Amino acid sequence: MAKVVSGPREDDCWLWVGAIADDGYRRFSLRREGRERMVRPQRLLFEHVTGRELTRDVELLHTCDVPICVRVTADADTHLLADDHGANMRDRERKGRAGRHQVGMRGLSRRQLATRSRTLRDLVLTMGWNREAIAAVIAGAGADQPTLFDWPA
Protein backbone atom coordinates (compact mmCIF):
# COMPACT_ATOMS: atom_id res chain seq x y z
CA MET A 1 0.00 0.00 0.00
CA ALA A 2 3.06 2.27 0.18
CA LYS A 3 2.78 2.55 -3.63
CA VAL A 4 -0.93 3.43 -3.62
CA VAL A 5 -2.59 6.85 -3.53
CA SER A 6 -6.27 6.82 -2.63
CA GLY A 7 -8.77 9.52 -3.43
CA PRO A 8 -10.66 11.22 -0.61
CA ARG A 9 -14.11 9.93 -1.58
CA GLU A 10 -15.29 6.48 -0.56
CA ASP A 11 -15.73 5.40 -4.20
CA ASP A 12 -12.47 6.87 -5.58
CA CYS A 13 -9.84 4.73 -7.24
CA TRP A 14 -6.71 3.60 -5.43
CA LEU A 15 -4.01 4.49 -7.94
CA TRP A 16 -0.77 2.52 -8.17
CA VAL A 17 2.20 4.90 -8.23
CA GLY A 18 4.93 2.28 -8.59
CA ALA A 19 6.32 0.71 -11.74
CA ILE A 20 4.10 0.43 -14.78
CA ALA A 21 4.72 -2.21 -17.42
CA ASP A 22 4.79 -1.61 -21.19
CA ASP A 23 1.13 -2.67 -21.36
CA GLY A 24 0.06 0.23 -19.10
CA TYR A 25 -0.70 -1.94 -16.08
CA ARG A 26 1.00 -2.03 -12.72
CA ARG A 27 3.78 -4.37 -11.65
CA PHE A 28 6.44 -4.91 -9.03
CA SER A 29 8.97 -7.56 -8.17
CA LEU A 30 8.55 -9.95 -5.29
CA ARG A 31 10.72 -12.72 -3.97
CA ARG A 32 8.71 -15.95 -3.76
CA GLU A 33 9.98 -19.47 -3.32
CA GLY A 34 13.57 -18.28 -3.67
CA ARG A 35 12.94 -16.55 -7.01
CA GLU A 36 12.47 -12.95 -8.04
CA ARG A 37 9.12 -12.67 -9.82
CA MET A 38 7.18 -9.85 -11.43
CA VAL A 39 3.67 -9.68 -10.03
CA ARG A 40 0.60 -7.57 -10.60
CA PRO A 41 -0.17 -5.72 -7.36
CA GLN A 42 -3.93 -5.84 -7.94
CA ARG A 43 -3.81 -9.65 -8.00
CA LEU A 44 -1.72 -9.82 -4.84
CA LEU A 45 -3.98 -7.30 -3.10
CA PHE A 46 -7.10 -9.15 -4.26
CA GLU A 47 -5.81 -12.41 -2.77
CA HIS A 48 -4.85 -10.67 0.48
CA VAL A 49 -8.18 -8.85 0.91
CA THR A 50 -10.52 -11.65 -0.20
CA GLY A 51 -8.52 -14.68 0.90
CA ARG A 52 -9.17 -16.17 -2.53
CA GLU A 53 -6.23 -17.52 -4.53
CA LEU A 54 -6.31 -16.41 -8.16
CA THR A 55 -5.37 -19.06 -10.68
CA ARG A 56 -3.95 -18.12 -14.09
CA ASP A 57 -7.37 -18.45 -15.75
CA VAL A 58 -8.95 -15.84 -13.47
CA GLU A 59 -8.91 -12.25 -14.68
CA LEU A 60 -9.72 -9.11 -12.72
CA LEU A 61 -12.30 -6.84 -14.35
CA HIS A 62 -12.00 -3.11 -13.64
CA THR A 63 -15.39 -1.55 -12.95
CA CYS A 64 -13.69 1.88 -13.15
CA ASP A 65 -11.67 1.09 -16.32
CA VAL A 66 -8.54 2.74 -14.93
CA PRO A 67 -5.62 0.36 -15.56
CA ILE A 68 -3.56 1.57 -12.58
CA CYS A 69 -6.44 1.27 -10.11
CA VAL A 70 -5.90 -1.38 -7.44
CA ARG A 71 -9.00 -0.73 -5.32
CA VAL A 72 -9.94 -4.10 -3.89
CA THR A 73 -12.41 -4.33 -1.04
CA ALA A 74 -14.45 -7.19 0.32
CA ASP A 75 -17.69 -5.30 -0.34
CA ALA A 76 -19.56 -3.53 -3.14
CA ASP A 77 -17.03 -0.64 -3.17
CA THR A 78 -14.44 -2.78 -4.95
CA HIS A 79 -13.25 -1.69 -8.39
CA LEU A 80 -11.87 -5.15 -9.26
CA LEU A 81 -13.98 -8.25 -9.75
CA ALA A 82 -12.66 -11.76 -10.39
CA ASP A 83 -14.06 -13.57 -13.43
CA ASP A 84 -12.95 -15.40 -16.56
CA HIS A 85 -11.70 -14.11 -19.91
CA GLY A 86 -15.15 -14.37 -21.51
CA ALA A 87 -16.71 -12.13 -18.87
CA ASN A 88 -13.86 -9.66 -19.32
CA MET A 89 -14.50 -9.54 -23.09
CA ARG A 90 -18.26 -9.10 -22.58
CA ASP A 91 -17.55 -6.25 -20.17
CA ARG A 92 -15.27 -4.70 -22.79
CA GLU A 93 -17.98 -4.95 -25.46
CA ARG A 94 -20.68 -3.57 -23.17
CA LYS A 95 -18.51 -0.55 -22.34
CA GLY A 96 -17.66 0.17 -25.97
CA ARG A 97 -13.96 -0.66 -25.70
CA ALA A 98 -13.88 -3.03 -28.67
CA GLY A 99 -13.61 -2.27 -32.36
CA ARG A 100 -13.07 1.07 -34.09
CA HIS A 101 -15.11 3.20 -31.72
CA GLN A 102 -13.27 2.47 -28.51
CA VAL A 103 -13.55 5.00 -25.70
CA GLY A 104 -11.54 5.79 -22.62
CA MET A 105 -8.11 4.46 -21.70
CA ARG A 106 -8.79 0.94 -22.92
CA GLY A 107 -9.30 2.08 -26.52
CA LEU A 108 -5.59 2.88 -26.83
CA SER A 109 -2.68 1.03 -28.32
CA ARG A 110 -0.34 -0.70 -25.90
CA ARG A 111 2.18 2.15 -26.14
CA GLN A 112 -0.49 4.85 -25.72
CA LEU A 113 -1.97 3.03 -22.72
CA ALA A 114 1.45 2.78 -21.07
CA THR A 115 2.11 6.48 -21.72
CA ARG A 116 -1.27 7.52 -20.35
CA SER A 117 -0.92 5.28 -17.27
CA ARG A 118 2.53 6.72 -16.55
CA THR A 119 1.24 10.26 -17.07
CA LEU A 120 -1.54 9.58 -14.58
CA ARG A 121 0.91 8.09 -12.08
CA ASP A 122 3.32 11.02 -12.45
CA LEU A 123 0.50 13.52 -12.07
CA VAL A 124 -0.65 11.95 -8.81
CA LEU A 125 2.94 11.84 -7.52
CA THR A 126 3.56 15.52 -8.30
CA MET A 127 0.13 17.12 -7.74
CA GLY A 128 -1.50 14.74 -5.30
CA TRP A 129 -5.17 13.88 -5.74
CA ASN A 130 -6.51 16.46 -8.17
CA ARG A 131 -9.85 15.16 -9.42
CA GLU A 132 -10.04 17.45 -12.47
CA ALA A 133 -6.47 16.74 -13.62
CA ILE A 134 -6.96 12.99 -13.13
CA ALA A 135 -10.19 13.07 -15.13
CA ALA A 136 -8.45 15.01 -17.92
CA VAL A 137 -5.67 12.43 -18.21
CA ILE A 138 -8.14 9.54 -18.23
CA ALA A 139 -10.16 11.34 -20.91
CA GLY A 140 -7.02 11.82 -23.01
CA ALA A 141 -6.49 15.52 -22.43
CA GLY A 142 -3.33 16.95 -20.96
CA ALA A 143 -3.39 17.51 -17.21
CA ASP A 144 -3.01 21.26 -17.77
CA GLN A 145 -5.49 21.51 -20.66
CA PRO A 146 -8.52 23.63 -19.73
CA THR A 147 -11.86 21.88 -19.60
CA LEU A 148 -15.00 23.28 -21.18
CA PHE A 149 -15.83 25.25 -18.03
CA ASP A 150 -12.26 26.37 -17.24
CA TRP A 151 -11.48 28.46 -20.31
CA PRO A 152 -9.71 31.72 -19.49
CA ALA A 153 -11.89 34.84 -19.44
Quick overview:
It contains four helices and six strands. It has helices spanning about 40-50, 85-95, 110-125, 130-140, and strands spanning about 5, 15, 30, 35-40, 60, 80-85.
Secondary-structure element string: EEEEHEEHHH
Distance linking N and C termini? 42 Å
Alpha-carbon Rg, integer = 16 Å
* Overall number of strands: 6
- Major beta sheet summary: 2 strands, antiparallel
Morphology call: globular
Mean pLDDT: 83
| Number of H- or I-type helical stretches | 4
Name the poorly predicted regions.
100-104
Strand arrangement, largest sheet?
1-2
Structural class of the secondary structure composition? alpha+beta
Q: Which range best describes the helical content: under 10%, 10-25%, 25-40%, 40-55%, 55-70% or over 70%?
A: 25-40%
Strand content: 15-25%
- Give the domain tally: 1
Topology readout:
Layout: E1 4-6, E2 14-16, E3 28-32, E4 35-39, H1 41-50, E5 59-62, E6 80-83, H2 85-94, H3 110-127, H4 131-139
Antiparallel strand pairs: 1-2, 3-4, 5-6
